[in-house]
Design brief:
heterodimer; A: 278 residues; mainly alpha; 12 helices; 74% helix; 0% strand; globular; B: 292 residues; 13 helices; 77% helix
Chain lengths: 278, 292
């Protein structure tokens, strides 16, 4: 009886948790399969579900969607560039700090951590001015470099933690065999670090794809902006087409959600372990 | 192998070899150092230089929005972050039950964290639209009265921005606390059961002592991130109505868009008494954990 009571309490708790989590997401889905007339009916399921909104998007048949393909390409290009660059920079730095014990490595690690703890919206303002001074505003590279700056500190931190756990005897053996630092890096370090590298690459890629604020500040031309900024433009007018906005939002949200769930095993293990090390 | 105590530091290689390893170390760390110099140190110094004029602070304090923004930010930090952590603490206790359906629920529960902010925050914004939103439609159907004006009311607007923030980041922190709970040895709970401890006593004397440090560190880190949370306010209320729901993050960006860079930087400098103690706490904490 006691066990039955406990199970029903657990099940009763699950309902509000499920509703709370899914309501805004289901609302997106509902709008994106509704036609303009039935979108506001307040029904739980549209009378005639339609995929027409997605057709409008892929054919770029609305004022807000004229550059949809260019913008999604920009998002993809920037996300991949940020993933690759962050991975390269952070892996090299973590290797130098953790394995080669480079002089000043500890200071660099602390500077990186310091950067990680600057609230993102606060760094955005001086970053915007600096990008202007470098003449990079409105270039994809401004966003790529800004996102690498934001992603690298955490990446270095996590990779250094993972790298510190590798046994030192490996380095010893490699040195005795006469390996150069680069051979140690390529033949010993990279293969052993693969799971963490996958997690960090995915982290940087998703961070860049999802970013709104920096993209909104650094890019403004309709052919250079990312899809995130383009979605923000929808809201500028009061009569914006909600059903198209929600359908575009769904298209924008699906890839990161899919990637996230595909790599969940790496992400949850690799990232949460480093996130808060108390 | 594990029974032999190995010296922690590698024995010093010959001097010539050492310098080659140090050279490679310097080369490999250089890209990040360059990124730091060009995109953190230079911008921050330049920004602080722009904020050197005392007149910009006089103008900032004269702006009636500013005081309101500071109050909003403090409310946001105190209420939203603490509420989020109480919820996360409670939910982590729910999710550690070993049931197959709870595992599935935890996968679904991660969705708000896994999907980008813009579509979901706009979705919440539409739900609360006073004329066409689904919430007021339901209220009208049930009571035949118009619902509240939601986002056009500054108090409700700020409250909903806090709820949006909680909705978005609750899964992440719940996950962290679940990891913390799973690290507590099971025997401690079994011993407590043998002694006839109640559920509350188990929490008070077994769970909480182990979880306390993690809970505190996470709360501080979350406060830092919440200070930088631009999306939850900007995408939901846009700082409105009448600029009454701004927080420091959105106010700084608002000044930038109005081309008042000195005011934007002054806003950030004014936030420093809030940010620096939190950053100092985290730095101290992490470098201590690093040395262990």
């Amino acid at each position: 009886m006691r066990k039955f009571y406990k199970e029903s309490v657990l099940l009763l708790l699950a309902i509000p948790i499920l509703l709370w989590t899914l309501l805004p997401i289901y609302h997106i889905f509902l709008f994106s399969i509704s036609s303009k007339d039935s979108a506001f009916s307040g029904a739980l399921w549209p009378d005639k579900p339609t995929l027409r909104n997605f057709g409008t998007i892929v054919r770029e048949e609305h004022f807000y969607l004229h550059h949809f393909w260019v913008q999604i390409w920009n998002s993809l290009w920037i996300a991949v560039a940020v993933g690759v660059l962050t991975l390269a920079i952070a892996t090299c730095a973590a290797f130098a700090i953790s394995r080669l014990k480079v002089k000043g490595g500890r200071t660099v690690m602390n500077l990186a951590l310091f950067t990680y703890f600057i609230p993102a919206a606060f760094l955005a303002i001086p970053m915007y001015k600096a990008m202007g001074a470098y003449g990079l505003l409105n270039s994809r590279w401004s966003l790529v470099l800004a996102m690498v700056t934001l992603a690298a500190p955490y990446a270095i931190w996590v990779l250094k933690q993972a790298s510190d756990k590798l046994p030192y005897e490996l380095d010893e053996a490699a040195r005795i065999d006469g390996a150069t630092p680069l051979q140690l890096f390529r033949l010993v370090y990279l293969p052993l670090m693969t799971p963490s590298l996958v997690a960090i690459g995915t982290y940087a890629l998703l961070l860049a794809w999802n970013e709104y604020l920096y993209a909104y500040l650094l890019l403004s031309h309709e052919r250079t902006i990312t899809l995130a900024v383009a979605l923000g433009h929808f809201i500028a007018a009061d009569d914006s087409p909600w059903e198209l906005l929600m359908a575009t939002g769904l298209v924008y949200a699906l890839p990161p959600a899919a990637i996230y769930y595909a790599f969940r095993r790496y992400m949850v293990g690799g990232l949460t372990a480093g996130a808060v090390k108390a | 192998m594990s029974s032999i105590a190995l010296p922690h530091a590698p024995p010093a290689p010959p001097a010539r070899r050492l310098s080659s390893w140090q050279t490679w170390g310097a080369i490999l760390i250089a890209p990040y150092v360059l990124v730091f110099l060009a995109f953190v140190l230079y911008p921050v110094s330049y920004g602080l230089w722009l904020a050197r004029d005392p007149a910009s602070y006089t103008r900032l304090f004269a702006d009636p929005i500013f005081v309101r923004t500071v109050v909003n930010t403090i409310i946001f930090l105190m209420v939203a972050v603490n509420l989020k952590f109480l919820l996360a603490l409670w939910l982590s206790g729910f999710f550690v039950h070993e049931r197959i359906w709870i595992r599935w629920l935890s996968v679904v529960f991660l969705l708000p964290w896994a999907v980008p902010s813009i579509p979901t925050i706009f979705s919440i914004r539409f739900m609360f639209n006073p004329e066409w939103g689904v919430i007021n439609s339901v209220i009208f159907k049930l009571t035949a009265h118009d619902g509240p004006n939601w986002l056009n009311d500054p108090h409700i607007g700020l409250g909903l921005a806090m709820l949006t923030h909680i909705w978005k980041s609750l899964p992440f922190w719940t996950l962290i606390l679940i990891a913390g709970r799973l690290a507590i040895p099971r025997e401690q709970y079994e011993a407590a059961s043998v002694d006839g401890a109640s559920a509350w006593q188990k929490f008070r004397y077994v769970t909480w002592p182990s979880l306390r440090t993690l809970y505190l560190t996470s709360t501080i880190l979350s406060m830092i991130w919440t200070l930088g949370d631009f999306n939850s306010v900007y995408l939901l209320t846009g700082g409105g109505p009448a600029d009454l729901t701004h927080v420091l993050a959105t106010l700084g960006i608002r000044y930038i868009r109005l081309d008042q860079v000195d005011l934007a930087m002054a806003t950030i400098v004014c936030a420093m008494p809030l940010v620096l103690p939190l950053m100092w706490f985290m730095m101290k904490n992490l470098s201590r954990g690093d040395r262990q």
